[in-house]
Amino acid sequence: MLDYEVTVYTANRAVATTLNHIYIKLVGTGGESEHKLLLSLRGPSAFVRGAVASFTVPSPTSLGKLVLVELDKQPLLLFPEDSWFPAKVEVKSPEGDIYKFPIYRWITDSKVHRFREGTALKGFEDNHHLGRYSREEELKQRQKDYCWDVYVEGIPHCIKADGPLSLPAEVRFSFAKQTEFLFTASAGLAELKLKGLADKKTNWMNIDDIDRVFCCKQSDISDYVQQHWKDDAFFGYQFLNGINPMLIRRCTILPGNFPVTDNMVFPDGCCSLAEEIKKGNIFLCDYKQMDGVKANTINDKKQYLMAPLVLFHKTPDDKLMPIAIQLKQKPAEDNPIFLPSDSEYDWLMAKIFVRSADFSEHQLNVHLLRTHLLAEVFAVSLLRNVPMVHPLFKLLIPHTRYTLQINFLARKRLISEEGVFTKFSASGGEGMMTILRRSLSSVTYRSLCVPEDIAERGLKDVPNFYYRDDALRVWDTINRFVRGILSYYYKTNAEVQQDSELQKWILDIFEHGFLSQPGSGIPQKLTTVDELIKFVTMVIFTGSVQHAAVNSGQFDFGSWMPNTPISLQLPPPTKKGKATEETMLKTLPDVNTTVQGMATLWLLSQRSSDFVPLGQYPEDHFSEKTPRQMIENFQKELAALSAAIKERNKTLEVPYRYLDPED
């Protein structure tokens, strides 16, 4: 008899333990072992959380090259059937060869589950000895488990699921994540409910009352926001380094519907708009996607959502200062252009309306659509079209972690009929879907690739733009890593073109994510290794780095409500000289709307205890030495970048931490 040394690793995660019997069969090119019960002197503890247990599987003859293991779990007489989360199986053959079988999924029943040896195989490669367990069989099952659904016409498609528990077990929250998520959601609301505010449908009477709620949960940055939210320099700073650095662009020609004059913005005659535009010192934010959007009704009161235009001037001391604001798209006598020289509350109210419009632009376009919904499309297409053995699956699967359940909960708790944003934001309800549809039609491939986006918006040389600095460095680091991995597996362009699984993946993304809009520039097929590298870099960047940039600071910048109002309940001033502090307080959202928004931003900004930083791969999907070394190099580069960002932040009045790879 020949002995195969089998080592079974149970994942070190909550409730991964099984007390059931575990059986294994080894399948090779030369035959199969018997279906063997794995018995250990350790007894039931062989398959507890984090356990590593070794066994011997005999065979009368050599099995040849191992290609597959079969695992099944059978309940004991005295123990009910439970769930088990094996991480991997390693087998040492009598000839001394080591075979690794990545698993990383829940086994919840007593059926036989088959797992292929971990060496990556592209879509035109296969091991024909697998016979009954072909790639086609795996993908056929996956396409039953992961079905497309249409949540609302005109926005990216999503996973079909009746509830979190109907999602396949391997993509659901861990026990720790689920527990913390439920606790955090209830704790945030409970904290505010205790103050008797969550049901108070009245105006704020003074700023001090807002401060008392705000003070219960502060960060160093949110405290800075409260102190400086009225300052023009900080207003401009947020369009570069706040939670929405994606709208501002260099102005090369003043929009025809924004009739700003030299006398308005440079009354001392020191310079002219034409001169400053030519020098590259004028910048623009245009919220035209909000134009004509039907605003919500909250607490039986009509709300207001503007579509402003904002002009900025880069001053000689490198500050980005707002110099003109028009709150509606169409110039008119009752749509004045507000200026820093106006009265305190005229100018402050104009900035508040801009910040409120930015809340909706950020939440729906920049955050929800361009990170969450697109990341879900990338993940569902991967799970439907690419088998576990494929190098693309191994590379991308860690970056899909929790995406499907998070998005299911976002649809249910944030944008459904009873969702927080639907009920309490100015853009909730009908307006929300209008904005999402418009936003999708404006998404381009170039805008998702940060080097091209920065160049296209004319922001390559803007000073003090830390989002750009960090995003470009992380993009380049990811790109080098992706190039190394994919170039190892794809030696020629022809190999990319011949990979049917890869081509189905990209086509599904084009059809279900971008609704077959050719104007998006999203490829329908991949023809070169370079095209593949760029697209995969974008996928990883979108779901990790870009999401961190537009999500992690939400409570920092939004918890002081006047800085980012979720809604406004008076129309904008139509004449100058009328606004007062009382006007401002009546315009700001009601007390209950404020605290619901604060609690939601707090929840969205929380990090779970099982957070995994970029570049860390707890699951061991790659078995070959070369890609494993590339992962180590990637981690070292990210660590060096993290150290550089931390050092830079020591010198900043407001540190920019959101793209630190370690955070």
3D structure, described in words:
The chain has 663 residues and is of the alpha+beta class. The protein has a domain at 2-117: PLAT/LH2 domain (Lipoxygenase-1), CATH 2.60.60. The chain is 41% helix and 13% strand. A hairpin with a 5-residue loop joins strand 16 and strand 17. The longest helix is centred in the middle third of the chain and has 42 residues, at 344-385. The radius of gyration is 28 Å and the shape is elongated. This is Lipoxygenase domain-containing protein.
What's the short version?
Helix content is 41%, strand content 13%. The chain has 22 helices and 18 strands. A hairpin with a 5-residue loop joins strand 7 (86-92) and strand 8 (98-102).
Key traits:
5-stranded antiparallel sheet; elongated; alpha+beta; dioxygenase; Lipoxygenase-1; oxidoreductase activity, acting on single donors with incorporation of molecular oxygen, incorporation of two atoms of oxygen; 663 residues
